[in-house]
């Protein structure tokens, strides 16, 4: 495929935007080459500036679970836009989406809307610190919770791809309050708790990780964290920015039947508009201003266009729970097809999958934490990425990302994707 116009647009962008992009991982730095500039998208497809049609497995990094330009979402946004795009005053639709979210997600009484997943996680940690009157947090290597200072300590995703796990600009003072553990290592978390008695405010994690590829919690891991938090008076935060309204209507809490104290959302909850949210039971949420002492605010929070998009999205997911089964079935089909194509050419790989999240690692051993995810063969991934792109299949330009399956993908699209993998496989590293 030809990407001439994309390259020209990228060259122009670099004069006025750092690296030509507004979020680093978009720049293809990990895989080489110039990023694709999108013109429009519909359903399962992206249409780029050179007139190529690409099957999309990124889906705006998660939000477009029903495909691009999903009509009820588009209609809701267009209708709202005619009536004013922001007021900075309360609107009824904020209560409507809050009521629906509270109904769908277990264990939450109230929810506060913000503008991104970063804001949601940042605010959730502040709330946990305010509530417990403690400073330290435990996070896991390879989990990404946005680009707020406290989290840029061995974050996954772009922060890993760019080799800046500890970003300059994050002060030592901030970094010292973030204690790191390995994902799926309960014993280590226990040791950290014991070494920091009465100091840990919260444990934050992606209950199913998606920012070091897709990594599932080991049996008993989430339950163990729940017990440790209870034993030590700390709050458990599930960052469900990626998994919320995706793995089940009520997220991982519902799917795995473990309750967090605070849950954060982003991506799907905004239907593709800039939305994040955090939620908890009354006792915790009433610690927030204006009721309680913990400050948190936003000029555009609860924006009417964003709320309209989110409400249309959540309403669809709430009304048709079969969507989640369909997504899982499609993902399983893709998994089998890809594995078969790679096995045929003896390409060493591991595929992780849950619901509509899947990742292909060019690693021989099981991928269960950040260290094992890092063992994947990067050169092989680069070839894989560019090979697929050339065949019109667009996956994330980094080995540390998850693919997102959407309801808009047809089995024909999945077969096209599997055929593309089969075509690329002979060029990948042999066993
Ligand atoms: N948490 C998780 C689990 C995420 O995947 C992301 C985004 N990839 C964030 C937080 C940050 O969200 P945002 O990019 O909307 O700030």
Count of DSSP E strands?
A: 14
Rg of Cα set: 21 Å
Distance between the termini: 29 Å
Bound molecules: 4'-deoxy-4'-aminopyridoxal-5'-phosphate
- Residues in helices, as a percent range: 25-40%
Overall average residue pLDDT: 95
Task: Assign the CATH class of the largest domain.
Answer: Alpha Beta
Total domains: 2
Structural class: alpha/beta
The gross shape turns out to be globular
Strand order across the biggest sheet? 4-10-9-8-7-5-6
CATH superfamily of the largest domain: Type I PLP-dependent aspartate aminotransferase-like (Major domain)
Enzyme class: isomerase
Pathway: Porphyrin-containing compound metabolism; protoporphyrin-IX biosynthesis; 5-aminolevulinate from L-glutamyl-tRNA(Glu): step 2/2
Modified residues (N6-(pyridoxal phosphate)lysine): 267
Subunit structure: Homodimer.
